[in-house]
Amino acid sequence: MVKLQVRIREIPVLDKLQYLHCLLSSVLPIVKQIHHEQCFEVELEQRLCGTYIDLVRAKLNADEQMCCNICRIPIIDYHRHCANCSYDLCLHCCQDLRGASKHGVGTEVNENQIDRRIQDEETLSKFVIDSRGRINLSDKYQGWKANNDGSIPCPPKEHGGCNYSSLNLSCIFKMNWVAKLVKNVEEMVSGCKVYDADTPQKSGLSDSTLCQHAHRDDSDDNFLYCPLSEDIKVDGINKFRKHWVRGEPVIVKQVFDSSSISSWDPMAIWKGIRETSDEKIKDENRTVKAIDCLHWSEVDIELDQFIRGYSEGRIRENGSLEMLKLKDWPSPSASEEFLLYQRPEFISKLPFLEFIHSRLGILNVAAKLPHYSLQNDVGPKICISYGSHEELGVGNSVINLHFKMRDMVYLLVHTCEAKAKHCQENGSFDPEKSLEEGRLPDISLGGRNIQEDEVKTAAEKNEKMEDQGVDNTTSIEELERIEDQGAERTTSVPEVERTETIRMEEVEGMEGQQLRKNHDDIPVEIHTGVSWDVFRRQDVPKLTDYLRTRCEDLWKPDNAVHDFATRPLYDGTVFLNGFHKRRLKEEFGVEPWSFEQHLGQAVFIPAGCPFQVRNLQSNVQLGLDFLSPESLGVASRLAAEIRCLPNEHEAKLQVLEVGKMSLYAASSAIKEVQKLVLDPKLGAEIGFEDPNLTAAVSENLKKVAKPRQISCA
């Protein structure tokens, strides 16, 4: 992987120390939890062996990854291993197996000892997950139990083991590495006296950088932070962090102007990638993978055909628009090389590089993993997909409702309104005929159509009013409106919000962002590129309840998982249209932030916030994943939930190694602090595992912090 050599502004020493302190404070609870789990297993091993133990280190190459044989989650460090058949068990699965074997555990290891980790974890930081998410092993692994003394035998052959003796405690890193990290981090965090500058704070409504994107009752977070790129140069990252710590999306405007839009045309991207990448296939008929957004299935398509459909549109046999998005093209490595050699200025223009840069971001926890790590690529990605301003009902959402355990940023770099000429010329696509074909804006399973339900409800209401002798003019008009207009757009909002949106567009149009004027000075709206719905983290339980309750009413593709109701936000198989969003608010009081992304805008989405996306035009997005200190606790909780999903679930393939990231982040930050507070000539030479170093670091931190208080989360 080529490293992006992007020049990032020099961070002042005290600011850098503040960022490092924030990073260390965030990773400390996770590192302490890992250490506590290891201590429990070490004490148990000592009781079993009766002597001092020296753990055997697993022999792994730098680019290898060890996964647990039960949960298939990458192992952080300590684990139990069979010397005979190489069966590996993570510490969490060890605890789950002992918990499932409690009825057979004798007095040698009582229930309190087994659950000590669980009890002590509750006393850790609020960011540390609890252990309620356990895998039920008693049914799946019948006949395999932990011994009375707490030891675990290798499972029988039918469960993948060899039934040989007991699994031995082993490690990946040095035996006491985590313990030394905990000691160093604790002293550095406590040695730097700070005040909490990043406590969630309310911003005044008079703030020009705030825009209303929700209308929740009795809520102080209806407004989102929407600064101009120029504002960030003045405000820095502190204002961003005050909103980010609250789990709020952020929209940065005018990251770049429209003068460079042609350089992001898909054909220009293809040409640039062929010039810079190592890809050997350079023929014009290259076949790539794409996702059909109607069936959510993979299709093969020639790249030039896809690019032609990007601007001209593609029509299905029944006359409906076909919505596609490229999958894994360009590849992450090709995207990174293309940006490095063809568009190097764009990465440097991105806001908040301290958070999002995949290699140099000082506040990007994911950036601390070694470059050879097998963790999923977190570098920049180029996302190319179709879109339509027309609401097709089903099949035109490019991202269904789901959440991710990473933070994300998407920069809209190119848009194109597909003309769908073939559709218009042949007369095969007619909005009036779409009702007969079932391609409705609001559609659900079982052949039941939401629009038809609304018409039926209005008709019944009208008939009832006639029977009661009541003037039914309004009801007739309502019925005609529903029939004439069809169901409303997915992005439709309450009338109050529509009025507010119009007012905001008029104001922003004066800035030249969202409206353009013709020669007669009549404002003409420019169609936006992407429609976003982002839900709050605290609304996840209610949102999940709604999805489970309305499971049968929600349209899902044929290949949707059968047990969708058990984990709806991990499967990403449904899209909430306007009807369901209204019902969700009426029944559960849950409303998302809804906004439209314009060309040149960057949208930041916090980890753990459910979101869905619909393209209003064909477009190209530049996306980056990152993990901020503020989202570390959320990512840790989601990792625990993902561990309990079925092993074949796609989310397990995307799971972040939050624990390992935290360990590397702690190690990296300690080294950086040493360079700042100790003699620079010696900082690079002193090892962070030196037991005599922590006191000196703590003392130096006090001296540095004394003349000036350092704000930190």
General shape: globular
Radius of gyration: 28 Å
N/C terminus separation: 33 Å
Strand content: 5-15%
Which sequence of strands runs across the widest sheet?
8-19-14-21-12
Uncertain runs with pLDDT below 50, 5 residues or more? 103-132, 194-198, 422-525, 681-694, 700-713
What is the structural class?
alpha+beta
Report mean pLDDT, rounded to a whole number: 75
Give the biggest beta sheet.
5 strands, antiparallel
Number of strands: 22
Which range best describes the helical content: under 10%, 10-25%, 25-40%, 40-55%, 55-70% or over 70%?
25-40%
Describe this structure in words.
The protein has 713 residues and is an alpha+beta fold. Helix content is 37%, strand content 14%. It has 26 helices and 22 strands. The strands form seven sheets. It has a five-stranded antiparallel β-sheet. Strands 1-4-2-3 form a four-stranded mixed β-sheet. The longest helix is centred in the N-terminal third of the chain and has 37 residues, at 13-49. The radius of gyration is 28 Å and the shape is globular. It starts with 12 loop residues before the first helix and ends with a strand. The relative contact order is 0.15.
